[in-house]
Write a structure and sequence with these properties.
It contains eight helices and nine strands. The chain has about 290 residues and is an alpha+beta fold. Pfam families: HTH_3, Peptidase_S24.
């Protein structure tokens, strides 16, 4: 039996990036390899082969992983992001099909109208995905529409601890998704590149008072996954979620600071810290 050929460094890097994101977010999102397998309609062994770099990532698994981890595909595979973008961009230029049209019918319409520039391989892949029920793409590639100047910010069902750390769990929330004016956000000094990466999370604890109070909603930017300067970050450390002020202490450590003077600063290793988002705005509500 011949030995399986190893992946190229580029394909292996994609698998490593996907695995790192999965490890960083699985506790917060309540994910397991088994749940990935169920969502992708494949075996748990197949998921392990993707994450461990035995098999290269493909478009179908990338879409499922992107949806469950709530990150864009380009975070772990620019190759697949471009491939999917090329395929889906063709469908964006097709006239709206009738409601009775099947997925395969819609793809055939697209290929007939705009498919001349696609390779045979791309055409066949599109048709195969549309005709096979298990390959139906469940991720929503369309971006939420604007109502005037409004955008919708999804509420993450997680809470970041401003204290001893939190595991993702069920808990009552006052807010769900919110709609807000982009102009108003800009006037408040909120800076972001793409509103689709803005999310709402909940602060939990007292260590960041008075800046952030217990159960204050926070608008965060999940496109920021690395340290980009002093600020308040949502991060995972030792399998727990935190919201703290973060600075660089030295080449190996972050300085973690609580705004509440009763909590002393501490250092944590940078290699053990997984930044999930940067806090942009505290959505305070004060009783009057």
């Amino acid at each position: 039996m011949s030995k399986k050929k190893e992946l190229s460094p580029e394909l292996k890097a994609e698998c490593d990036a996907a695995k790192a994101l999965f490890v960083a977010k699985k506790n917060a999102l309540g994910l397991t390899q088994a749940s990935l397998a169920e969502a992708a309609d494949i075996s748990a062994a197949a998921v392990a082969m993707y994450l461990n770099g035995t098999n290269p990532l493909n478009a179908k698994f990338a879409v499922v992983l992107s949806r469950l981890l709530e990150v864009p595909i380009e975070k772990f595979s620019r190759r697949l992001a471009n491939e999917i973008s090329e395929l889906t961009s063709e469908t964006d230029r097709v006239e709206a099909p009738t409601q009775s049209a099947s997925a395969a019918d819609m793809v055939r319409q697209m290929l007939a109208k705009q498919g001349k520039g696609l390779s045979d391989e791309a055409r066949n892949r599109l048709l195969a995905a549309a005709e096979e029920p298990s390959n139906v793409i469940t991720a929503d590639f369309s971006r939420p529409g604007l109502v005037g100047d409004e955008i919708r910010i999804a509420h993450y069902d997680i809470r970041g601890a401003m204290g001893d750390g939190q595991k993702a769990a069920d808990f009552p929330e006052m807010l769900k998704d919110i709609r807000v004016s982009q102009r108003h956000l800009r006037e408040l000094g909120v800076e972001y590149e793409d509103y689709n990466y803005l999310k709402l999370v909940t602060g939990w604890g007292q260590s960041m008072e008075p800046t952030i109070k217990h159960r204050d909603p926070l608008i965060v930017d999940i496109s920021i996954r690395d340290f980009v300067g002093d600020g308040i970050y949502l991060y995972s450390w030792d399998d727990l979620l935190y919201i703290k002020r973060m600075q660089v202490a030295d080449a190996d450590n972050f300085e973690i600071i609580s705004d509440n003077a009763r909590h002393t600063p501490k250092r944590i290793r940078r290699e053990d810290t997984h930044i999930l988002a940067r806090v942009l705005l505290v959505w305070n509500a004060h009783l009057v």
